[in-house]
Amino acid sequence: MKNGNIIHVKNLTKTFGDFTAVDNISFQVGKGEVFGFLGANGAGKTTAMKMLIGISKPSSGEAQVAGFDVKSQAEKVKRSIGYMSQRFSLYNDLTIRENITFFGGIYGLKKSDIKTKSQNLIDELDLHDEADKLVGSLPLGWKQKVAFSVSLLHDPQIIFLDEPTGGVDPITRRKFWEMIYREAHKGKTIFVTTHYMDEAEYCDRVSIMVAGKIEALDTPKNLKEKYKVESMNQVFLKLARNIE
Ligand SMILES: Nc1ncnc2c1ncn2[C@@H]1O[C@H](COP(=O)(O)OP(=O)(O)OP(=O)(O)O)[C@@H](O)[C@H]1O
């Protein structure tokens, strides 16, 4: 583990009535780690992630994220993390520049900081010709790139990515992962859910959730050895299919 752990989860559980969506999960994530959070549809990933980012109260168990308790210090958790999802990211009817300004404001940045960060981001992503175009007019891969950068505006320690690369081709996804690695090398912790098993191979460690429980958690290499298969896709199929 690099430089200690930054996410601690112990016996975390979420029930909706009689139904247990997240069932007593425990794990830790290291600082600077790229942690893959996998599971079939409905396995409980989003419900677990919502508890970790402080927007849903656990039914029982506990979690600390960036040193803060998700139940009693949810606001501090929110300020320490970035969040990007396929479903919730940028506003299509605002330009790139307007989106940056808007989210900079949401994250509580000063006007002068927003201006500087906005220009840095446009320079870094080489978006000079697109900065004043509506986000809705951009290809999906570009939107994802910008959304990822926007989630970093307030310099969070941890970035939660909920299926960030859905719907784009493998080359665009690969490029997106290069951005993820760059941030991890700078010490950011990446917590990512994905349905793409090639992306699972890129993670330092992967957890696989089945019906609310974590059924496996290890490096891709160890998981493949343990299940005596060649790819993470086969590991996933073995686990998800065997139990369902
Ligand atoms: N607010 C809610 N009330 C009742 N049941 C819920 C609620 N939110 C989620 N669930 C149920 O909890 C289970 C886990 O859902 P969740 O969205 O966490 O799964 P997931 O692993 O993120 O799936 P997907 O990959 O499809 O996003 C599902 O059966 C879902 O129907």
Model description:
This protein has 244 residues and is an alpha/beta fold. The chain has one domain: P-loop containing nucleotide triphosphate hydrolases (Rossmann fold, 3-Layer(aba) Sandwich), CATH 3.40.50.300. It has 9 helices and 10 strands. A 6-stranded mixed β-sheet has the order 6-7-8-3-9-10, with helices on both faces. Helix 6 (170-185) links the parallel strand 7 (158-162) and strand 8 (189-193). It starts with a strand and ends with a helix. The mean pLDDT is 91. Bound molecules: adenosine-5'-triphosphate. Adenosine-5'-triphosphate is lined by residues 16, 19, 21, 39, 41-47.
Break the fold down into its secondary structure elements and pairings.
Blueprint: E1 5-16, E2 19-30, E3 34-39, H1 45-52, E4 60-65, E5 68-69, H2 74-80, E6 81-85, H3 96-106, H4 111-124, H5 140-151, E7 158-162, H6 170-185, E8 189-193, H7 197-202, E9 205-210, E10 213-218, H8 220-226, H9 232-243
Parallel strand pairs: 3-8, 3-9, 6-7, 7-8
Antiparallel strand pairs: 1-2, 1-4, 4-5, 9-10
The structure holds adenosine-5'-triphosphate.
For the CA atoms, what is the radius of gyration? 18 Å
| Strands side by side in the biggest sheet | 6-7-8-3-9-10
What is the chain-wise order of helices and strands?
Answer: EEEHEEHEHHHEHEHEEHH
- The assigned CATH architecture is 3-Layer(aba) Sandwich
Q: Which cofactor or ligand species appear?
A: adenosine-5'-triphosphate
Question: What is the CATH homologous superfamily assignment?
Answer: P-loop containing nucleotide triphosphate hydrolases
Return the CATH topology. Rossmann fold
How many domains? The number is 1
The count of DSSP E runs of length 2 or more, i.e. the number of strands, is 10
Beta-strand residue percentage = 25-35%
Residue windows where pLDDT falls under 50 for at least 5 positions:
none
Distance between the termini: 32 Å
The chain-level mean pLDDT equals 91
What overall geometry do the principal axes of the alpha carbons give? globular
